[in-house]
Amino acid sequence: MVASPSRTPGDGPGPTHVTPEVMAQLSRISAELSPRVPELTRSVYEYLATRIAELGEEPTLLDLLSASIAGNIETIFHALQHGIAPDNLEPPVAAYEYARRLAQRGISVNALVRAYRLGQQRLLQSAYDFITANDELPVDLAPAVFQRLVDEVSEYIDWMSQKVALLYEQEREAWLANRTTARESQVRDIIKGGDVDAAAAAATLGYSLTARHVAVVAWTHHSAPETVDDLGRFTSAINAAGAAMGSPRSRLIISRDQDTAWGWITVPESWEYEESLGDRLDATDAVHLAFGSAHTGAEGFRLSHQEAMRVQNVCVAGRSPAALRSHDDPGMALVSLMSTDVEAAQDWVRSVLGPLAENSEANARHRSTLLTFLRHDLSYTATATAMTMHKNSIRYRVEIAVSLLGTDLGSNRLSIEAALYAHSYIFVPGEQIPG
């Protein structure tokens, strides 16, 4: 590597000046070290394995790491022996392949570049030990020979680490794009229905279809503050929900657009939805979550997603400020079936509730009380306990609500209860309702 690459101000000091005698000695020593490549490879490999845990423990990765180290050391000694500049060298095939594989596994580029720096340190230490013990090297030339070795190896490592880092970034972007496309395509196929090869789908998605799933739709309203990493916010929100649900397994999350992501959370057979789940989530990022019910297998994957989509429709129609709504919320399963035609559903609610449908603080109290009364089987005592109010207050509110309905509860109870649920979900609070 006698002919060093061109340098610009700011690159740091160039290689030290050397005499032909120094270069001849360095060439000779490089030739003598070449047969020791396997030994040096093992020394560098063992050193890296103890210093960089991210490099992984899979046999295929470790084999590639060893081959990459060997290829780089062989190339360095070949270049030193014959005076070849880095720009005229061919990077080792194994080094490139190792960089590609790390990119595909999501291991950081920092771990890759750091391996080159630490490997350089270990190789130079071994070379120094060899030079100081070499009887054929005149003592007065040893410092200059070693300094030249340091300069040349540093040039090579700088050149090579830039190449593998660039290759890593290119491979990572391409791999992520291909993987994302494959995952989205697989998800669409599952949602459409038909036969699904669960094992093949799991390999593509990195998520098992045989488990019990809760599908999630995560979204932000268009008025939400813009952010550079929308998927990152959605991922954090879905993962936080999974943790709050006690899900020990990984989640499947894919981006739909800048405002929406789809997710699936694996839950155990014993898991049941609790209305308090939303209260345990941080809503400061303005991310809203719509849950489907829990179902099993590929069909459950599809069904829970369809439910979550309908729940989102309800939330958007009612401009729900809640961080989380679920298909398992009281009345939501029924109301979500109305979400395909919200305007028609609102008209039906008005026809059932009459003046009670009009938005006012008093009506809101009366609707809430009447719905709780119906949920507690027309028991004033149970309703009072649930709402922490006096029984006479409950009776008063119920009587007013019934008078506004213009009908008795017994003759149309099912429709009244459904209409009250629908009003709570698909009517925008405070919005005036035209007659």
UniProtKB/TrEMBL annotation:
MF terms in GO: DNA binding
UniProt KW DNA-binding keyword: yes
Record key words, sorted: DNA-binding
Keyword Acetylation among record annotations: no
Span of domain PucR C-terminal helix-turn-helix: 369-421
Domain (RsbT co-antagonist protein RsbRD N-terminal) ranges: 38-183
Ranges for domain CdaR GGDEF-like: 195-313
Family recorded in the similarity comment: Belongs to the CdaR family.
Protein name as it appears in the record: DNA-binding transcriptional regulator, PucR family
The organism of origin for this protein: Brevibacterium aurantiacum
